[in-house]
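Dear colleagues,

As part of the handover before I leave the project, I'm documenting each prediction I ran so the next person doesn't have to rerun anything. This entry is a single chain, and its sequence is reproduced below.
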Amino acid sequence: MPSHSLTASFNFVHVYTTLHVCTRRSAVRWPQIYARRLDMQNNKYKKLPAGIGWLGSLERMNLRHNLFKSLPRTICNLTNMEFFDASENQLRSLPGNLHKVEALVEVRATHNKIRSPPGKLGTAPNIQQVSNHVL
C-alpha cells in the first residue's frame, strides 16, 4: 500500500463499471484502488457490484438514500471498514457475516424493510452503535 493517502476524488461511475466488469470476467486484473471513503448517498443505485469487496482500504461506506434491495456478501471482506451507513434504502436484511468485520464501530440501517435484527452484529469486537428501527 502506498504511504500517501488518497485525497483526490475519483469518478465513481468508472469505478462502479469496473467493479461490475471485474466480477464477470475473472481474466481481468483488478486495479488497486486505495480509497478510504466511499460516498454513494442520494442516488438511485439499485445494485452494488460484488467487486466492492476488493476495495480493502475502505474505512467508511455511505450507501444512504438509494434503491438497494440487497447488498453483496463481499462487503464483509472490507476488514478496515469502521463506519457503514445503508439507511433509507429498500433492504430486507444486511449481509449475514457483517459481524466478522473486526474494525466495524458503527452501522446505520434505518428506514429500510428489515424485519429482524441483523443476526450476530452485536458480537462484532469493536461495535459501539447499531441504528436500526428493529433493534
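DSSP finds one helix and five strands in the chain. Residues 38 and 61 are 5 Å apart (CA to CA).

All the best with the project,
I.
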